[in-house]
Amino acid sequence: MHIARALAQDTRLIIMDEPTNHLDIKNQLVVLSLLKRIQRTMLIALHDLNHALHCDRLIALKDGCIVAEGSPKHLITPEFIEDIFGVKARIIEDKNYPTAIQLLS
């Protein structure tokens, strides 16, 4: 409902905090697909790195400070994930499917 309200107000900038929180997986993907089609500047707080892969640009925070910014493709690496979150991960790339992050520990 809040996304619809922002669209109806025709704002140039939309700020969202965890827009997919509390949604089942299917509806998370529906919301992300909708957001991708909206031709507006959006600032979105996300904690799911697989969702962050769909963004144009990321700003990563650690202990309340900006530690990195850039495109998801260049920014999100196994080393980056371990440094920021203290978790081992691998990036799964397959030409037939979207890139995904698998958390290992």
TrEMBL record:
<protein>
    <submittedName>
        <fullName>ABC transporter ATP-binding protein</fullName>
    </submittedName>
</protein>
<keyword id="KW-0547">Nucleotide-binding</keyword>
<keyword id="KW-0067">ATP-binding</keyword>
<dbReference type="GO" id="GO:0005524">
    <property type="term" value="F:ATP binding"/>
</dbReference>
<dbReference type="InterPro" id="IPR027417">
    <property type="entry name" value="P-loop_NTPase"/>
</dbReference>
